[in-house]
Amino acid sequence: MPDHAGARDDKHGEAMEEGIVGDALAAGLDASAVEALTEMAALHKRDYELDRWLVNGRSRAPVAIVLETDHRTLSTRRLLLKVPVTDDTARLTATEYARHRDAYAEAPDFAKEHLTKLEADPIRLGKGRFMTLQEIAGDDIESVEVLTVLLNSMLGTPAGDTTEIPCTPTDFAEICGAVVSGVLQPWNGRPRKARQAFTVAEFLGLHIQDQLEPGGRLHALSMEHRTDRIEIAGERRPLVNPFALARGALFGDRRIVRGLVGRTHGDLHTDNILVRVDPAIDAEKFHLIDLALYEPDGPMTRDPAHLLLYILARRMDTLSATQQEALLDYVIAPDEGHAGRLPGWLVEVITRTDRAFLDWLEGSGLQPEWRRERLLSLAGCAMLFFGRKSTNSADHPWFLRLAARAADRFVGMPGLPAPDPESAPPVAVTPPAWRTLPEPLPVAWIPDLVRPRTAARTAVELHLIPHPRVERPAVTRWEALKEGLVAAGREARLFTEDEEVRQEGPAAAVGSSGAGLAVTRSGQRSAWTGLPHDDSGAILDRDDLAIRLRRLLDALLRVPAPAPEGFGIALGIETGGLVVSEGPAHAAPHETVRSRSSAGPLRLPADGVLARHELARRGSAVADELVERLLLTFRQGRVER
Fold first, then answer.
1. Residue 145 has pLDDT above 70, yes or no
2. pLDDT band at residue 473, thresholds of 50, 70 and 90?
3. Of 2, 56, 98, 386, which sits 20 to 30 A from 367 (CA to CA)?
4. How far apart are CA 40 and CA 17, in angstroms?
5. Is 234:397 a contact under the CB 8 Å cutoff?
6. Sign of torsion, CA 540 545 551 556?
7. What is the dihedral of CA 403, 409, 411, 412, to 10 degrees?
8. Residue 414's closest CA among 376, 446, 369, 384?
9. Which has the closest alpha carbon to 153: 341, 279, 315?
10. Which three-class secondary structure state does DSSP give residue 526?
11. Cβ(401)–Cβ(328) under 8 Å?
């Protein structure tokens, strides 16, 4: 007899699988995420429907509220779905899922009250990407609200609108104080110092990570400020350069920062804090979301500093020029400043968050460490906001001034050794980990990429060739890639803000200066820029080449193209048939004797590969090594004149 029951089950299964991931949800996810979610859901007889997308304007990671229906238990529940944008197979223990899991396991009592809970195991998307499902913070999505909404309720949005949830200045300040107090005390217990003291550069590095390296948001900006002191409009005297301090200037490898450490969120800001608002605002009922940067031994002064500066970056529009000036002094030293000209809500936020820290430190005797590390955290976080696109461009100078003032104040603090202007930045212990290839990778050089007359006649060119090969971008992404090249070039200062940039096919951007960026169909990323000249021809200067290569690498790492596991690196000098010489770029011809060459293009093949994460973390060291290779090859192959 035919199994009609089985047939009905098969039809039901087919119907369920067709709608297993709703169309609206699938439309916002990449193909690998849809496939992985469909497979997992089919295995467990579930389906997923989009409730709403969550967007905060900064993160490209898809985040959605979804309705999960389980056909085995005949139940539905609302969950948060999050899909990471990038992957990193080399650091699986540092994925958001791993950090979130650790945060929950290491402090379960605090986690139960203030952290979201992961649902089951992560869903693997491949190459280190894991999609996660989490419980809704506070369980009832309509009973909690993002702190940013309450900030705008208190101040009114820039457009003049307000939300339906009333929030007084006192309410807002109480929430900020409760969050900082909660992070410090119930999450961490008593204060503790790191097992080993930090250098100043190491401590600032815990804030800005690798942002000073090529590809980082601060690289191009820091290259414009390379001396130990920095002159900034509005300041009466040169101040300590925070970028130089972060690179190891003034204190070198001396371990002078004792380091108050503990469990830290790592990205504490008003978009990552949910607060109970129904039936009334309850400052103690808060939830921290997005634990992608959680650390068990992070710097304790970082979270409060980042929260404060994020609030300022979001609502600097409510402060007059006079108030912004007064705020610089007050943020650096609230106990010394005059708060009369500042809005009461802002004074109360700073007072309550600092008071939370001092209450936590009571009985420890570690207040001097807090005062010093608070300044370094302000400097580090201010540098981050100075480099962020999300920060209003009109506010960038304010954050640079704050970073410099905090750095300058730190250097003059009692109890620290005298700064040494001759202190050399720490040198990396190990060189970049190259992997030699049996055969060089194929390379497209400048003449293969653009019309020769549009590029600089003499130029240094750098090419990153994916290894292994990556999938070709879809046609729909190719047009967006062209626009991304121009943006990447401007951000890296390869093109100036007002420089005319022409787009050439299939995906190349060439500035009026002759500098350019290109991506080939095979995924090769290429960048080039002109060389300095004197009356005799083009010049190869070690220091100048290092700066140019770092800028080229910075631009290439910003290009929004598919990211491979590693890159082969090719380097060359396009001579344009002119004489090329080695020597100081800024010396007059009669002041130095240069060895000259008029040979054809100089090219170093892509015979070695670096892992992508290695290139991102060690970009400056890679650029320096490439300079030495280039000069050595030039000397060995030149024709003496």
1. yes
2. low
3. 386
4. 11
5. yes
6. positive
7. 170
8. 369
9. 315
10. strand
11. yes
